[in-house]
Amino acid sequence: MAEDVTAARVRALIESSGLTQADFAAKAGLDASKISKSLKGVRRFTSLDLARIAELGGVSVDWLLGVEGAPAVAARALGAEPSAVEVAVREATRFAQARADLAFLGYPRPPRPAPVVPTDGSLVEQGIRLAEAAVAGLREAGGDPLAHDLAPVVEEHFGVDLAVVEMPDGCDGLAWSDEHAHLILVGSTEYPTRQRFTIAHELGHLLAADDQGLHMDEDVMDPDRRRQPSETRANAFAAAFLLPADDLREAVGSEGRSLTVDAFAALVLRFMVSPSTLAYRLDGLGLISAEQREKFRELTTAACAARTGATGRFAEWIESSRQSRLPSALVRDTFTAYVEGRSTLRPFANLVGLDVESLRRALDASAEPAAGGDEPEFAP
């Protein structure tokens, strides 16, 4: 049945192109006789056949296979600017489709070990225990939740494709999970602590298997959303993941109830979280009093940076959090499929945002030997 659907859709593409079957095959860089046999059901379409047909026809491989598409976005008002949610879902759909196409071509995302999701205790306790298990597994594998750049750590250990994209205000991030893709998407922002918390928050949703499919977080700090069960657990997970109890106890030492504002500010910069997140976590662990918590949570990250003489580092952190980021493993796998002849160049070009011919020229130029022999020439 799947072959019948694929053949029918390939025929539809050929008819809509206005080309003969032979001309269509030639334009796609395929053998006309083999395509004819595939259309008659004598031969199976290969992954490269489908990749090239999809490229020429402007469709996805999944569409050719008759696979159901990703969740659709409700149509926006005519003439209106796309909302943050629409932008986020559109980008997530693009990445998830790329991952599904790669799986079909023989490049599935390798599975990663996932901690067991607790089912007993309060939602806060579940989130904390899930984070403790995640941190333990991460550190056992050589990763560090305190790494300045958290994105590659999450990608490498948890098998997640993580993207940072520019979005209108109104969406902090989303988590996407389906048969082929586990995706975290967060917005570029001038609030680096919020972005870092959102990454951990969305990881919590993925590990807890919340809302299989698409989980959208317009505002991770919204009080109404924070009361929802899955949000309560994800927020508890994020705080415990970014602020492991043993690390905090060691950092605070014997100061505890005598912790000064300057010492607290230094901890904010060390752990790269907001003063509010740190204050509540320290209070939850019994390391500071409720009075200290209320005093510390009123600080801003910028004020903490100024108190510790780290304004330059804070400015660099802001600049970094404002940059877009493609999922590195997805980029690597897409390029590998092209290099190994399983895909055309177009999927990689689409992923990195370049037209095919410009990218092809750049790749051809990079393969040329340096002028004047083996030694490269450098201009002063």
Write structural notes for this entry.
The chain has a four-stranded mixed β-sheet, sandwiched between helices. The chain has helices spanning 2-17, 21-27, 32-39, 47-57, 61-65, 84-105, 123-140, 150-158, 192-207, 223-226, 229-242, 245-252, 261-271, 275-284, 290-296, 301-307, 311-321, 328-339, 346-352, 356-366; strands at 161-165, 173-177, 182-187, 213-217. Mean pLDDT is 85; it is low at 68-81. It contains 20 helices and four strands. A hairpin with a 4-residue loop joins strand 2 (173-177) and strand 3. The protein is mainly alpha-helical and 380 residues long. Helix 6 packs parallel to helix 18 (328-339). The chain has four domains: 2-65, 434 Repressor (Amino-terminal Domain); 84-242, Arc Repressor Mutant, subunit A, CATH 1.10.10; 245-321, no CATH class; 335-366, no CATH class. The protein is elongated.
A few lines on this structure:
The chain has 380 residues and is mainly alpha-helical. It is 56% helix and 6% strand.
For this entry, give a set of tags.
6% strand, 56% helix, single chain, mainly alpha, 434 Repressor (Amino-terminal Domain), four-stranded mixed sheet, 380 residues, Arc Repressor Mutant, subunit A, 20 helices
Structural topology:
Blueprint: H1 2-17, H2 21-27, H3 32-39, H4 47-57, H5 61-65, H6 84-105, H7 123-140, H8 150-158, E1 161-165, E2 173-177, E3 182-187, H9 192-207, E4 213-217, H10 223-226, H11 229-242, H12 245-252, H13 261-271, H14 275-284, H15 290-296, H16 301-307, H17 311-321, H18 328-339, H19 346-352, H20 356-366
Parallel strand pairs: 1-3
Antiparallel strand pairs: 2-3, 2-4
Helix pairs in contact: 2-3, 6-18, 7-11, 9-11, 13-16, 14-15, 18-19
